[in-house]
Amino acid sequence: MAWLPVILSVVALVLAGSALGLSLTSSGSTGPAGPAGAAGATGTQGPTGPQGATGGLGPAGPAGATGARGAPGPQAVINSSTVSVEQYFSTTCGNPPGAVQSIEASGPGVVVVTASVHLELVHSFDNFTADELFLSNASASCTGIGYDAAAVTAELPTESYYTDATLVGSFDVNAAGTQTFYVNGYDVSTGSDRSAMMWASFTAVYYPA
Hints:
Blueprint: H1 4-25, E1 77-88, E2 100-105, E3 109-123, E4 129-136, E5 146-152, E6 159-173, E7 177-187, E8 194-208
């Protein structure tokens, strides 16, 4: 039975190979995690995202410094006078001597004129005694801007009556120069009654444009 040892040897080898196969194919328990590797290189920048919503309004900033004072503007000019006239009106439009006021204008603008006049109306009973007054920039114009009138009715007794009238007008000025204004008027009485301007007081104010 010289072959028996050979058979046993073969069997032993087979068993050993099987054991080795089992050892190679079976896995043991998972070992602990190794240390973290080094950080990789930075990737390329992604595309720009959409614009965000507009933020709220910020607080108001501090007030700025006061600016420099501007140059003085043009100044108004005032001229006034009171004159004695003592002149009867005629029945046609005219300017009683002295009832005039002038003022110098430095350029375009406006002149506002106020004239107060004191009147005498020489009245007879049963007559109508009156005059009409105009403020104008022409010496023989009775269609001026300012207007007033004075009258004594027929039923009042014979007497000299005294009254006041006020005329106001605004006149455009187109260029520099002397501006002159007049109180003109005429008598509209009946019969022999007459009216007169006793004195006149003027105030003219020039306002540059």
